[in-house]
Amino acid sequence: MNQRSRRLLLVATLSTLLPATACGSGPAASSGPAAAAGEVAKVTWAIDSGPRSLDPAHAYDGKSALVYQQIYDSLLYLDAAGRLVPGLATSWSRPDPLTYVYRIRTDARFWDGRPVTAQDAAFSLHRHTDKGVASEFATYFGAVRSVTATAADTVTVKLSRPDPYFRYVPALAGQVMQQAYATAHPENLGTPQGRTMGSGPYRVESFSPATGAVLVRNPSWWGARPAVARLEFKVVSDPETLRLAVQSGSVDGTFLSDPSQSRRWRDGDRLKVQWVPSPQTVYLSFDVTSAPFDDVHVRRAVSLSVDRGGLTAALFGGKARVSRSITPPESWGELASADQVRSVYDGLPDPRHDPAEAKAELARSSHPRGFQVTVPYPASMKWLGDVLQSLQQNLKPLGITLTPQQVPFQEYLAKLYGHRQLGMQIIPYTPEYPDPAGIPALVLGDEQAKSGFNTSGFTTPEIERLLSRQRTADRDERVEGVKRLMSILAEQQPYAPLFYTDIGLALNRRLVFDGAYTIWCNFSQQWAPLIKPAAR
Asked: Where would I find the Solute-binding protein family domain in this sequence (predicted)?
């Protein structure tokens, strides 16, 4: 399918950063006491569902990325502030608007001892453009014309058109695998049987989508030697079982993506818990191509029925913020100043809970007496079901019968990527990079409606023009274009923004996360080398 299960489902996991320094830079505080030099024989890390594959092309979701980011090296990474930093590429340049050049480090080796070459890097990037591979990252490579190894240590990417977002792609889909190994395993690459060949800080000992994975330290990794010798990922799907496991010490740590559990997760004798704000956004998606959600009044009625403020306090314990747009303020990066960003959001309508106006909007629609709708949510994210149950009660007076449907994680993703009869969906999503046009570019437009993540099917000629101009416009025009896109979404409501949710880190006190913990440390980076023994 395509791209988003990640950070779509970053809300369902998180990711990580550059080997020893990426997460460490930036303003966020460390998660605990100072780190000590020394070894940690084993760390058991809990995840709520197993990785789908070790092949990034077929596992673009946060749960899988948590594992495979530790076994591959990526060309680039994002630091704690969302800035691009070196990885396998020691430097990079953009000699013209259609060309990117990456210099590859010469001291990296795959687990079998063979050197990592520019040809391996070019092959790994090119796979995402190959329709035969059917990469879930394919959308990010839509503007790519060619990827070639132009020297022993150089990869050159040529674009067919300007793409302001491509500069971040090597930090998202830049994982490098060995070409010889991949071509020798065309049918089972990334599976428990076929596995893979990377050059990252850890190599694979075992892997199962059902139970997790076991990684062991790669002694020949080019980066600083990780303190943790053995990293075991254990699937613990029940939130309370997970909490008790971490609290008791049978599990050493986990990333927390469920803010509804924040009241239960408290510091203890063995446990340190940290929550930080993030740009994770949760929204409702309405398929505007079919009834009843082809009617804007229906979409507005549903949106007005959501008690965002009440849910933020009662369900999330304050670990969430009411959102005015599916584009979070933290995603603006360097495009606009803080004052400009505040002005943009101040100009958007307040997403209020107004039952009377919701009833009036439905009365204006072609479905004034209501309708029935079933909305799926992943079993591993029960809190999304809690949001739907609250909305279920608020919609009853309107004659709208909403049925929340718990489904397996994979079924949930398959439905979204299937682009058929989507109706109404609840979607958690986290931007992969700090650009405010990133989300609109992936959830709007005709191209994304066919094979991408436009789950609403919404587009207009103006939207197509605005999205196209984002590729070539200067900074001021880009800011105005994003403002207009956000205004259209607020008016037409193909997506109803709900919350920006905090993320958390729970860690045994014998360990420390040696760096700044932010959202960018959780999806497209190597975080395991930052786990170290705590100083006594």
From this structure: 84-447
Rounded-to-integer distance, Cα 48 and Cα 323, Å: 26
Residues in the chain: 536
The predicted model gives 135-145 an average pLDDT of 92
Give pLDDT, residue 60: 85
- The DSSP element (H or E) to which 192 belongs, if any, is none
Homologous superfamily assigned to 5-252+510-533: Periplasmic binding protein-like II (3.40.190.10)
Q: Is the pTM higher than 0.85?
A: no
- Assess whether the region 5-252+510-533 and the region 278-501 belong to the same CATH fold: no
**Residue predicted with more confidence, 14 or 290:** 290
pLDDT at residue number 369: 97
Tokens of 2: 């395509």
Instruction: Specify the higher pLDDT residue, 434 or 339.
Output: 339
In the chain, the N- to C-terminal Cα span, in Å, equals 48
**Nearest residue to 62 (alpha-carbon basis) of 17, 16, 10, 135:** 10
What CA–CA distance (Å, rounded) separates 341 from 349? 15
409-430 confidence digits (pLDDT tens):
889 988 887 878 899 999 998 8
Distance CA 524, CA 74 (A): 9
Determine contact, residues 431/331, Cβ cutoff 8 Å.
yes
CA distance to 45, 257, 381, per residue, from 239 (Å): 14, 11, 9
Q: Could you give the count of Cα atoms lying within 13 Å of 29 in the half-sphere of its Cβ?
A: 9
Q: How far is CA 366 from CA 272, 298, 363, 369, 403, in A?
A: 53, 8, 8, 9, 21
What is the C-alpha separation between 442 and 447, in angstroms, rounded?
9
Is 40 in a helix, a strand, or coil? strand
- Could you name the CATH architecture of 278-501? Roll (3.10)
Task: Quickly tell me which residue has 């994304």 as its tokens.
Answer: 448
Q: How far is CA 182 from CA 54, 121, 156, 223, in A?
A: 12, 12, 21, 24
> Facing residues of 508 across strands?
271
E strands, 62-123, in order: 73-74, 76-78, 84-86, 89-96, 99-104
SS (HEC) of 206-242: EEECCCEEEEEECCCCCCCCCCECEEEEEECCCHHHH
Mean pLDDT, residues 173-192: 96
Computed from CA positions of residues 329, 4, 203, 119, in that sequence, does the dihedral angle turn out positive or negative? Answer: negative
Q: Indicate the SS3 state at residue 490.
A: helix
* Domain coordinates in residue numbering, the chain: 5-252+510-533, 278-501
pLDDT per residue over 284-342, tens digit each?
A: 999 999 999 999 999 999 999 999 999 999 999 999 999 999 999 988 888 899 999 99
222-241: pLDDT as tens digits: 999 999 999 999 999 888 99
